[in-house]
Amino acid sequence: MLATVQNCMVIALTVLMLAGAVCACIFKDLISAVIATAFVSLLAALFFFLLHAPDVAMAEASIGAALTTAIFVIAIKKTARSEEE
Questions:
Q1: Residues 6+ apart with CB under 8 A from 17
Q2: pLDDT given at position 83
Q3: Distance between CA atoms of 54 and 4, rounded to whole angstroms?
Q4: 3-state SS record for the chain
Q5: Minimal CA–CA distance to 40: which of 4, 5, 27?
Q6: Pick from 73, 69, 22, 15: which is nearest to 41 by CA?
Q7: How far apart are CA 18 and CA 23, in angstroms?
Q8: Which of 11, 39, 69, 71 is 20–30 Å from 78 (CA)?
Q9: Which of 81, 20, 82, 78 is nearest to 45 (CA)?
Q10: Which residues contact 43 (CB under 8 A, 6 or more apart)?
């Protein structure tokens, strides 16, 4: 029973990660794309946790979802957008 629930969660996470990656590629607004990428990274951290790798999950959540997203948002805010010109 537990293996079936875990398999369903893995499939659901995989589908959500793929949907988030497609959304990140489709979005025209860069901030929206970065948030979608952070969502994929957060789901990857949860995926690693389900695979019993909590150290990798913590690294992915802190670096992939938090730090990289913050760096991208700061870089986007400091650059001029072509729509504003």
A1: 40, 43, 44, 47
A2: 58
A3: 21
A4: CHHHHHHHHHHHHHHHHHHHHHHHHHCCCHHHHHHHHHHHHHHHHHHHHHCCCHHHHHHHHHHHHHHHHHHHHHHHHHCCCCCCC
A5: 27
A6: 69
A7: 9
A8: 39
A9: 20
A10: 13, 16, 17, 20
- Amino acid 3: pLDDT: 75
Residue 81 has pLDDT above 90, yes or no: no
Task: Note the pLDDT tens digit of each residue in 8-53.
Answer: 888 999 999 999 999 999 999 999 999 999 999 999 999 999 889 9
Token digits for 15?
């589908």
Residue 4: per-residue pLDDT? 86
Residue 64: predicted pLDDT: 87
